[in-house]
Amino acid sequence: xxxxVQIAGGGIAGLSAAVAFAKYGWQVTVYEKSPGIRPxxxxxxxxxxxxxxxxxxxxxxxxxxxSIPAWRHQKRDQDGTVFAEDFFSKDxxxxxxxxxxxxxxxxxxxxxxxxxxxxxxxxxxxxxxxTIHLADGSSRKGDLVIGADGINSKVRDSLGLxxxxxxxxxxGYRAMISRSPAELETDEGRGHCEHWHGARRILYAPCxxxxxxxxxxxxxxDERGQALPVDKDYWQETFPHLSWLIDRLPEAGRGDQFxxxxxxxxxxxxxxxxxxxxxxxPPFLGQGGGCSMMSALALATWIEEATAIDPGxxxxxxxxxxxxxxxxxxxxxxxxxxxxxxxxxxxxxxxxQRSDWLKRKTIWMTALHxxxxxxxxxxxQVLQPL
Length: 386
Ligand SMILES: Cc1cc2nc3c(=O)[nH]c(=O)nc-3n(C[C@H](O)[C@H](O)[C@H](O)COP(=O)(O)OP(=O)(O)OC[C@H]3O[C@@H](n4cnc5c(N)ncnc54)[C@H](O)[C@@H]3O)c2cc1C
Fold this sequence. Notes:
Elements: E1 4-8, H1 12-23, E2 27-32, E3 46-47, H2 48-57, H3 60-64, E4 72-76, E5 82-87, E6 94-95, H4 99-112, E7 116-119, E8 123-127, E9 131-134, E10 139-141, E11 144-147, H5 154-158, E12 162-178, H6 187-190, E13 192-197, E14 200-208, E15 211-219, H7 223-226, H8 232-238, H9 243-246, E16 254-263, E17 267-268, E18 271-273, H10 276-279, H11 288-306, H12 309-336, H13 342-354, H14 356-361
Parallel strand pairs: 1-2, 1-11, 2-7, 4-13, 11-18
Antiparallel strand pairs: 3-6, 4-5, 8-9, 9-10, 12-15, 12-16, 13-14, 14-15, 17-18
The structure holds flavin-adenine dinucleotide.
């Protein structure tokens, strides 16, 4: 008999899960409270682990078709001195497509597979027997419910699964800037770079031929660093050599306070949580979305392999939780380095940089992980739309 899954939330996690379950032959419904797909105007780091998931879901090409592959990632101090540097290869890729490209690729694939997407519908709660409750007062029952409703998840909170919610005391602004293709010919324009000055940081990431993704980060006490619209004079005083990009920052951009979320359990009965609802983390590793996609594909794959839902869920949590919680912790402590004296921070980064083993156990651990379900592309029979 056709198994049914109801997904709360049509973001990266919810759409990844929708595509994965549909490829395994499930009947999938996604409830998204916004009136449509909601891409934020920014780029998204997709490392090897996330790219492998996109390949398995069949949306890799569509996601990265306009993006340029990263070749080098540097960290520099306020004088422009490079204190950490990594290079990419075909086995260790990094792309930074726009969020719109990623979400639209997932959305198109979900529609092609017959996933039912209901926009403008808010999920208020879920019961362990697989029932969800919608804002209009109605309820729907399925074989499985997935809460992919983001950091303020109502599904999670209705089940009392939250263990801790901790502020990282840092603020981030993200936006896209335009850039001429000619700038990609310059060393500065081509390479990804994290520029540090004291506790402030500017991340520059080439995205497409004519767009770059910028992220500014400041600590809580730094009022001018958190101002929106961005206080360009302030950022230019701090990073005078980056005025070529600060000048181009748009008035509009998105600002976020960073948080880390931990749960007591990732599931209760027939309800499971994925994405920021369960693995929200400061964005310093660029892995929140990667973890969300890994978790979504792994869940569908563990259930498929177990050939039953309850043991599949148990196996999923047992195998997937450790790496994702580790990623959250590394991202959190990476962010904490902003509060360290700059020389000490640089020394720590240099120390990690010198040891391949240490890098693989910390900053690169998740990026180099081979996610469950990615050994081969999912090619199960595709159901026709109902
Ligand atoms: C500054 C910043 C930079 C980041 N950079 C990166 C990066 O480079 N790489 C990376 O991998 N990750 C990055 N992340 C993390 C990444 O954005 C998140 O981990 C990812 O978006 C989580 O996806 P999600 O689907 O769980 O949540 P969301 O993207 O929040 O999606 C949740 C969806 O559910 C909907 N929804 C919410 N409540 C309900 C409800 N009750 N009923 C129905 N629908 C509901 C929302 O409208 C939304 O569409 C970054 C995060 C921040 C803050």
